[in-house]
Amino acid sequence: MSDNPFDTSRGNGGETHQHIPEKGPHEGLDHLTTNQGIRISDNQNSLRSGERGPTLLEDFVLREKIFHFDHERIPERIVHARGSAAHGYFELTESLSGITKADLFQRKGEKTPVFVRFSTVAGGAGSVDTPRDVRGFAVKFYTQEGNWDLVGNNIPVFFIQDAIKFPDLVHAVKMEADRAYPQAASAHDTFWDWASLMPESTHMLMWAMSDRAIPRSFRMMQGFGVHTFRFVDAEGKSTFVKFHWKPKLGLQSTVWDEALKLQAADNDFHRRDLHEAIEAGNFPEWELGLQLFDEDFASKQPYDVLDATKIIPEEVLPLKIVGRLVLDRNPDNFFAETEQVAYCPANIVPGIDFTNDPLLQGRLFSYLDTQKSRLGTANFHQLPINAPKCPVMNFQRDGQMQMNVPTGRANYEPNSLGVHGEGGGPRECPVTGFPTFSAASGKEEQGDKLRIRAELFADHYSQARLFWKSQTHSEQAHIASSFVFELSKVGLKQVPPRMVGNLLNVDPELAKRVAEGLGIDLPQKNPAAREPIDMPPSPALSIQKNMKQTIEGRKIGILIADGSDAHALQSLVNSIEDANATAFVVAPKVGKARLSDGSTIKADGQLAGSPSQIFDAVAVLLSGEGTGILLKEGAAVQWVMNAFVHLKAIGHTPEALPLLHKAGVEPDEGVVALDGAFFEAAAKRYWYREPNVRMLA
């Protein structure tokens, strides 16, 4: 394109036309065309029969332009609809040629391009970034042998053991069918009704109620392949493998109250954080760790390694670090790349293979079908030519071209809605239901075809207990409080006691704390299908035990006002940036703050629009004059108060103490002067402070 290819003129109706100069060159790429490459002479007016006459059907420019506009949007994903992504590469740091023949794992130092998408699960594409939710962690490797998609989450286990239960899980956790709320939240009737009837979900619930579900940043969370996969070498030998992504910046989370306020402060907090980090050259990075084992190891474990509700603790089987993942380029176009990218666990390359994990097997089918449905309809069976002539009774719902009008909110099972006077819907029938032929159908097939789970899958509580016992006291308080909050939103009176009855199999103290928090009597323990066992605690499961005490990659908020010390401010900003952190100056007015030396500074953000929950630590750099002004400003008091109750370090000048006192800040190790001690304090959170600032279960 040339630098200035356009002339500008006015049309008969006064409309603006930008056009190629009549006497200029006409062989370049400056010319506007249709999608067929036909150059357009007028992009401002439809073709009419006369100046005020009807528009003509032959106007193919109008027809194509409106046609394409009408079809710009495609259906969003059913789950993982809200996502953010980036380009990057995977670099192999240790050859695995003796374990797998997969090409990307052969040559140390070789880089494989990737596209990584992070997402929430329950909310729609227009929901927020920071609800309590699982986060998707999907990696597309563009290998020389084809694309390999490792489609996982930031939690290594899942709610269910068999993919046949996935529609019930999603129906239960999504907005309730008869009222279309709540959005992006599990704290409601149908989810906990379902979960309390599904003991296998207990281990995952422990993770989901922990701070893993409210991460500080995509850059500071782990990723997992969830399932057990296989590596296959050149001779056909198989090795089981589980995939782990370990963030370079270490694990970090928010606290629940902070997460709630982040939803008001910045709906796009995680998306913005990822984009801005890459733009600034602070490329997010993860190590790829593998757990490698054989059939003999698997058979000796007290759980089935093909059970997606179980982990292999790292203390039992340490990780082998074999590479690093680096994200170094933001998408050029969100729709074309992030929205349209299609991941499928069935996309693998030679040297990587599946196992008989029943959840994985279902995903191998589901994802391809899901991607195809985004371009069509799931309700083709309702067309007259396809419609059955017998009654159709199931829990499938919605989709494009839905002709039926289901009533009530029973779109999942098991459910106990009938107990409460609502329609509960149909149920399975072992007598008249379709019986699959169970015998092996060929000599290459081993075992009968059965609708049955392996016996070890019946242990739903041992690893939930392991997770609980591996947390710090603070994290345990968060888990118990999360159960209380979520179950307090449930209106079905039988559900909370049922859920607490399940938790008694995890830990009596946990169940007692949740029951007391709900104000209900402690129920009887629900029978366990398989009696849980005690496993050694795994420190790797705790966020707080694995936090890095560093301010690298963090954002430090600096509150100033008129009279703030100019030299101290510049020195503080320089020190923060030297530590590879980000300094963000906040003032009552963005335009100009007058400093102590008479100079003025433009703040990065205005006080009311830059709450302290978007920062990892804060500095209150005020003079006596500035403190006097901000003592009368509610936003400033809240700014300091929220930093304190969100357990963050607070550095302050002596003159700022009246503002801290008004905000209810009590002296502790995290409230320090703005000197060297501040940077040491800013590297961590102060969990022991929490019982003094909020009630926890």
Automatic annotation (TrEMBL):
Keywords: Heme, Hydrogen peroxide, Iron, Metal-binding, Oxidoreductase, Peroxidase. It catalyses: 2 H2O2 = O2 + 2 H2O. One of its GO terms (molecular function) is metal ion binding. The keyword Oxidoreductase applies. Belongs to the catalase family. HPII subfamily. Residues 16-30 have a biased composition (Basic and acidic residues). Its cofactor is heme. SUPFAM superfamilies: Class I glutamine amidotransferase-like, Heme-dependent catalase-like. Decomposes hydrogen peroxide into water and oxygen; serves to protect cells from the toxic effects of hydrogen peroxide. The active site is at 80, 153. GO terms for cellular component: cytosol. One of its GO terms (biological process) is response to oxidative stress. It comes from Rhizobium gallicum bv. gallicum R602sp. Residues 33-421 form the Catalase core domain. Residues 1-10 have a biased composition (Polar residues). This is Catalase. Its EC number is 1.11.1.6. Heme binds at residues 77, 117, 166, 363, 367, 374. Residues 1-32 are annotated as: Disordered.
